């Protein structure tokens, strides 16, 4: 088999509350425009405290998508396929026969598929009726609906890796796709994750007293790492990468955005929802070991930064212990909310774009760093920096920890 293969990013695409292209998203970051909105439709649920979300507004299904293709696609799959189509176009591979001959696979996930389809099955159990159920209800709901729909939509016949691991679905998708290419199993993968916004997802965190309740001032929240933060906000969207074996990419003259050089994944093995800083740190150390790098090589850490007390404190203490107090860190969840299954892919996309432009964006609403957080260089405004390596970290319920390292392609 020979040595390990090098893995590069040749295509990136996504959709979020702040746009679906980097020029628009970065302009919103630069001008402190938040994607968080008051959600009056959630007034239907008086037992839920939060009324805040980060919705994708005015999404329209592309005109060339067929009715047959859409039958199996819930909103989360529509987001994921849309992001994948943009990533393939970015890579110059959209419509290329090479992606459908077995050389390309997909690794993708979401937290729960489509909650709207869960509702239909729930109605069956509660009321003994099958109203609304049809042959596609399950495939729109199933945890691997994003991966399956991407594979079928583009005719991908390579390996299919479902990564439904809540907030690490997107980063595990990228990580496992990277490993599949690195170990010579396949030359190309589409990788990432998605999520569709639903009150049920907000209620998950509301029940844990972990949601923001600044319902009258949506632009002021969430506030990752801030002493005045009061919880997270749920968002939606999708992010997808085209990952490619280096020689395969060079042979077809592909544009290379970055090289993916390290992936680390660990489990807390202790508590289903309480983060553990030691195993968070272990994921970062594993990524560094995989990349053959010392901590000093990393120029910026894109933090998970959900704006929950336990998460912010554990993650920043782990990051500070490993990298020291001078490591720059920020969280884009302050602008978009927590996009759950999409965040690992979206934030990896943002990390690469920031690295390539030497322009790193800050954490919105961060005014006073919580003294319980680790000592780090928290970005409170955009900053020009020139670095060769960036790290993106994500952590999920179930004690799942991931770390990805991207290298600038010069």
CATH topology of the largest domain: Peroxisomal Thiolase, Chain A, domain 1
The tally of strands reads 16
Mean pLDDT: 97
Low-confidence stretches: none
- State the CATH class of the largest domain: Alpha Beta
CATH architecture title of the largest domain:
3-Layer(aba) Sandwich
Our count of helices gives 13
Classify the secondary structure makeup into a structural class. Answer: alpha/beta
Helix content: 25-40%
Proportion of residues in β-strands: 15-25%
Oligomer: single chain
The largest sheet, given as strand count, sense and whether it forms a barrel, is:
11 strands, mixed
The topology string of helices and strands comes to: EHEEHHEHHHEHEHEEHEHEHEHHEEEEE
Domain count: the total is 2
User: End-to-end distance, in Å?
Assistant: 28 Å
> Any idea what the radius of gyration is?
20 Å
Q: Taking strands numbered 1, 2, ... along the chain, how are they ordered across the largest sheet?
A: 5-4-6-8-1-9-16-15-10-11-13
CATH homologous superfamily (4th level) name of the largest domain: Thiolase/Chalcone synthase
Query: How does the overall form come out from the CA principal axes?
Result: globular
